Structure formats: structure tokens, C-alpha cells
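[User] Once you have settled down, look closely at the record that follows, and write a paragraph about the fold.
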Amino acid sequence: MTDTHFQGVFPYLVSPISASGEVDAAVLARLCEDLIQAGVHGLTALGSTGEFAYLSWAQRRRVVEVVIAAAKGRVPVVAGVASTTITDAVHQAREFERLGCNGILAILEAYFPVADDGVYAYFAAIAEAVSVPVVLYTNPNFQRSDLSLPVIDRLSRIPNVRYIKDASFNTGRLLSIINRVEGRLQVFAASAHIPVCVMMIGGVGWMAGPACVAPRQSVELYELCRRGDWAAAMERQRPLWGLNQAFARHNLAACIKGGLVLQGYAVGAPLPPQAPLSQDGVEEVRRALIAIGAL
């Protein structure tokens, strides 16, 4: 994999962990293979759906190792790096690059608030530690210290900081980012946004958990957007948005894992103390998957 230009559908992979705490490599590799066969454009390990905040370093490393091996260079693998300290984040990023990932998804964890200069220093250190492209991850719903527009602008001037994935509910913020960075960063949407709208304003794709359970439908939607067939894209978007709405009512990792179990992948439940998907949730996800032809 020599092409480092990211675009299209990058599913946020789940992290199947056995009762003994081991990564279920066979299940994860099978999921990666099926997603690639469905036409996805890349794989993202250790995003929110991958429960990165609940995994040990050994588990995180193993997840990335399995995904890289399963991809076999056919699609780029972007590995999530998340920490509260610069030292640890740099260590993770260097190790994932050494394993062979094609990009880093940079996530800032924080217990105490971090000022803009500290936020900048964290992401800049990750970028400077590796040679692969860096995707900034911003999720104000869960992050105590988020990326402000001025910080995004500053980071966009670092050569290998080339993408941003925004998981807010604010599509207007995406347009503000696009206007501010003037092409230095490319924007990926999340499941919180309506992907067709993001593509219309200049986005290059989406990194999202729902693409794990609806890969073919997601790829078809992306291709319609790429062709500029916006009417057909919106017709395809409407039922897919129903799936996103179902996920928004429940724990995201529980929904994606629950949906994958319905599709025959033994990925297990979210890691405790997270609760598994309720029976009502299972039925809601089942109906949403049936509605889009994914079950």
C-alpha cells in the first residue's frame, strides 16, 4: 500500500474481545475480509466503535496488528492513537507505524481540561513522530478538550496532518473547517452527520461505525455522491439515516456489535461496565438492517 490518499468509506471496526481478554483475531480478520470484499475504501481500527478507551495497550496493539495482516495491503489501515499524555501518544503512534499502518487517527483523551496550546502540542507531537498521514479526530460530545477552529488551522499547516474526522452533530462546523483550512485538510464525516450533505460541501468520505454493518450500501451511497447524482444519493441516504437514528438511541459500540452478531459475526458484547444491547435495542437494529437490505 503506497497510496496515502484517503477517501471513501472507512468503517470504524469493532474490537472483539473474548471472556479471557484476548482479541478474537479470527472474527476480526473475517470481518475485515468481508468489508474489503464489499468494496470499502479503508479500515479504521480503534475508533469510538472500537472501544479504544476500554482496551489495554496490549489489546490495542493486537487489534491493529490483526487488521493490518487482514488487509494485506489492499486498502489503507488507519490506527487510532488515544492518550492523556504526549509521551504515551507518541509511543503508540510510532509502534503502529512500525507495524505497518498507513495512517494515524489522533484522539485526545483528557481528565482535566487542556488549553488550546496544549491541544496543539499533543496533535503536533503525534504528527512529528510519524511519517504517515494523520487524521485529526474531534468529538465534542465525548471529549473534555476539543479542537477549536484556530487550533485546527494551525495543525493544518503541518505537512502530514492531512485529514480531519468531525463527529459533532454540526455540519455547519464542517463547512467552517473547510473554509478555514483552504484545502490543507480533507474532511471525513461521522455517522452523526448526513454523509450526502457532507459530500456536497466538499467532504471526501466518512469514517463511521454503521459502515461495519452496511458496507455495500455505504459504498453505493458514496459512489452516487462521487458521480454527483444527488437525487439518487438522497433516495439511498434516507433509509440509511434510519439506521443511524437507531444507533443514536443506544450505545454505539453495543449497536454495531449487536448488528454484527445478527449478521453472524461472533464479536461479543461491549466491554463492561458498558451494557450489552437490550432486547428492544436488538429488535430495533434488526428492523433497521432489514429495511436497508443488510439482513
Summary: The first helix runs from residue 25 to 37. The longest strand covers residues 77-83. The chain has a mean pLDDT of 94. DSSP finds eleven helices and eight strands in the chain.
